[in-house]
Amino acid sequence: MVVLLLRDFDPKNMFPVMRHGIMLSIKGAVVPGLGWFSEFFIIAFFFPLLTDQEKGKKWGMISVLSVALTMVVTNLTALFLFGGTMISSYLYPVFEASRYISIADFFEHLEAVVMVVWVAGIFIKVSVFFYVLSLGTAQWLNLSDYRVVVFPYGFLLILFGMWVTSNIQEMSRFLELVSPLHSPLFLLAIPLCLLFLAMFRKGRKGEQQR
């Protein structure tokens, strides 16, 4: 998509850079960054299942850097295409950018492809969260098999999926105002506290055995 839009890019659209100072840019980046990248803590749940954990850490870092690079490229694409003033009027700038692709009045309407990739990515993301939730619950309750909680959680997932946000405006407001605080709390702060607690208990247990 980026290659097909290259002829429509105008680098002047990215100027002026940091017109209102660097602090405003940092504040604008920290809030969504905390919401998005705190989800990478989910990778930690898969480390115990790996045969080679060193490779797991390596590819986990590569994944984080790849996503960061992809986000930079997609944001620059929308910025070069629409400009700073116009881009703020779009709810999903990358989706709008795909509508600009038109080659010889034949190769166009690629927003359907973007939507397919988007939906597939969300399906994988929800599946990973669903698996981690089921696995974590089974370990917490000392269940022999995590599949016992799959159906109840699946039912609640559908229920809360319809109840949490009734329309796209409400969902956008949730992602803008609530998610940047909600995600770091549940995906970073609480798991880190549990990790430190487990390390502390393991250390004390080792001292008592000595």
Kindly describe this structure.
- The chain has one domain.
- Helix 1 packs across helix 7 and helix 5 packs across helix 6.
- It is mainly alpha-helical.
- It has a two-stranded antiparallel ribbon with strand order 1-2.
CA radius of gyration is: 22 Å
Beta fraction of the residues? under 5%
Mean pLDDT: 83
Q: Which oligomeric state applies?
A: single chain
Annotate the secondary structure layout:
Blueprint: H1 22-37, H2 53-82, H3 84-87, H4 93-98, E1 102-103, E2 107-108, H5 111-140, H6 150-164, H7 168-209
Antiparallel strand pairs: 1-2
Helix pairs in contact: 1-7, 5-6
Quick rundown:
With 210 residues, this protein is mainly alpha-helical.
Key phrases:
single chain, 210 residues, two-stranded antiparallel sheet, globular, mainly alpha
